Amino acid sequence: MVRTGIGYDVHPFAEGRPLVLGGVTIPHTHGLKGHSDADVLCHAIADAVLGALGEPDIGHWFPPSDPSIEGICSLRILEKCAQIAAEKGMRIENIDASLIAEAPRVKPHAAAMKQHISAALGIQPDQVGVKATTNERLGFVGRGEGIAAMAVACLSKI
Ligand SMILES: [Zn+2]
Questions:
Q1: Which residue numbers belong to the known binding site?
Q2: How many Å lie between the centroid of ligand 1 and the Cα of residue 39?
Q3: Residue 45, Cα to own-chain centre: how many angstroms?
Q4: Domains of the chain: total
Q5: Where does 4-CDP-2-C-methyl-D-erythritol 2-phosphate bind (predicted)?
Q6: The CATH number of the domain where 113 resides is what?
Q7: Which site among 39, 106, 129, 139 is 20 to 30 Å from 114 CA-CA?
Q8: Per-residue pLDDT tens digits for 86-137
Q9: Residues 12-66: pLDDT tens digits?
């Protein structure tokens, strides 16, 4: 049995915050606003995994109203998703994800992101795709107001 899931997330830029994408802190003029570390890439991947499992989304497991998870590293969220998958007898076969941002450049950090994401999910780096594109200066991403991410996950029965 093979199951797929899709995830999408957006966070606005905010001043005075570190920019964390795929568990990697990237030097940039702005970070992303959010209750956690606002790692938009990890959040899209988490929702893809949860979706494939037929589980409620990330907001159910990590409600923004919960003060105990303020500033949480989103790799911990991925670890929780992998745990839920294992408890349901499912194995993560692969993840593919795209970041949509005008800046910063993601490519130099993609290998490190794959390393962090795969370690959190308990899989190998070559089971994780991390890609990036701009929005051709169109819309809120194009105006540099934030970063969007989308992801798919493929899981199989152990
Ligand atoms: Zn998010």
A1: 9-11, 35-36, 43, 57-59, 133-136, 140, 143
A2: 6
A3: 4
A4: 1
A5: 9-11, 35-36, 57-59, 133-136, 140, 143
A6: 3.30.1330.50
A7: 139
A8: 999 999 999 999 999 999 999 999 999 999 999 999 999 999 999 999 999 9
A9: 999 999 999 999 999 999 999 999 999 999 999 999 999 999 999 999 999 989 9
